[in-house]
Input
Amino acid sequence: MANLRLIITLITVLICLFSSFTKSSNVIKIYLPKSLNLTLSTDPSIISAASHDFGNITTVTPGGVICPSSSADISRLLHYAANGKSTFQVAARGQGHSLNGQASVSGGVIVNMTCLNDVVVSKDKKYADVAAGTLWVDVFKKTAEEGVSPVSWTDYLHITVGGTLSNGGIGGQVFRNGPLISNVLELDVITGKGEVLTCSRQLNPELFYGVLGGLGQFGIITRARIVLDHAPKRAKWFRMLYSDFTTFTKDQERLISMANDIGVDYLEGQIFLSNGVIDTSFFPPSDQSKVADLVKEHGVIYVLEVAKYYDDPNLPIISKVIDTLTKSLSYLPGFISMHDVSYFDFLNRVQVEENKLRSLGLWEVPHPWLNLYVPKSRILDFHNGVIKDILLKQKSASGLALLYPTNRNKWDNRMSAMIPETDEDVIYIIGLLQSATPQNLPEMESVNEEIIRFCKDSGIKIKQYLMHYTRKEDWIEHFGSKWDGFSKRKDLFDPKKLLSPGQDIF
Ligand code: FAD
Output
């Protein structure tokens, strides 16, 4: 009997030592064999940081975090996860600036991609090879030293190259140069099977197109070859106010249609709501109360935001663009303001806001953001139904609302990223970037649901960006005609469904 007990105890100890997955007091422990030569951090502060994201809405606890020193580390990890006796899932994590746990993995391994950061500009300065954990702000700093820069940007630069390429990467240059995923020449990817593959439009194209906008489902990007062009020195940055939505969108659309002509380099738009916080700081102090009064008077004011980059302010094109903006647009007379800033300060403008919010303790709050693409033909219906009938009727609104058009032909439909499946040339990018408190979060989330419901009931064929669905049928609807291809790619590159489970797709 004593012998039997001893044998049982020994077996139990052996199982604990050699299984990849063990649970004790509800905490999942992962065992990585020494031969992998990887350090798995389980320090409570590291686990706690990896359990949360920018959204501050979900908590998902991983079993451990690795900080890879090379892509070979990730390959060994995934090879082991895919072929070991029992499996654990793996999520690449950039800055964790996702909204609903998309970069998380319950009980699995987080790969801290920020450990891999490096930028090498090619000799001809036409591209840079960038390690996927590099922040865009560092890509800028390194490439600008050589007088070059990427051609398309997100509004915020403190996010990683791999994280943004897994989503799409959109901002005010999309109408001209496309989303970030359209400006990539080549990738190194480690698939869910642990294979290390280089891919491009010519080489392993199925993986290349799959990974771009692929929500981390097919592989972990370790290197991206990013298109570069001349880095301008400065930007003339304008904001103009409109009280009429149709006039505002007509001017926006006219400006993006001039992209191949003299045009502006950047175009976005904001919405000021009288029940929200109105940031008038872009306007001279003497005009700020007039702007606030205008919003109160009209309820909604639309802000056209554009920038023209330049090196030499004396070039005739600069005055031509300024003339077009100041003389031919139909903004409210007198309500125009211009800042002349360095190109870097322009690109890094959201960090100024981040610093302000951090100092007020308003950065690390819940962010029930809703990002949408809306076809141009229904933008007025969206405006009336959502901006006027839903948002303006809330007791209060907090955060930023963005609304600007872009050109569909800047997306490559072979990539995984989704935009509305209509044949319209122009689509609108909408960002309802709200901040909440733990108390009013449920209310704000139900407003977002109301918006989605309104679009559905009105037949507005939106697509969400940075979305988080928990029901398979929503994913199938999201990917529409691409769903079959998307799931086939999953079977091909990550058959054990190990990667980025926080997206809740498979
Ligand atoms: P994470 O949130 O860490 O990861 C995102 C997803 O990609 C996860 O599923 C993760 O598993 C996966 N992933 C991460 N790295 C890799 C990799 N190397 N290989 C494969 N999969 C990977 N987005 C825009 O497009 N335009 C904007 O203007 C914009 N502005 C923003 C402003 C702010 C203040 C914030 C917080 C976010 C903004 N975003 C914007 C959203 C941003 O693109 C996402 O947060 C995105 O997820 C990138 O963040 P990240 O690098 O932290 O990636």
User: Anything to note?
Assistant: The CA atoms of residues 160 and 315 lie 35 Å apart. Residues 12-26 have pLDDT under 50 and may be disordered. Residues 54, 91-98, 102-103, 113, 132, 154-156, 159-160, 162-164, 166-171, 215-216, 220-221, 350, 466, 500, 502-503 surround flavin-adenine dinucleotide (CB under 6 Å).
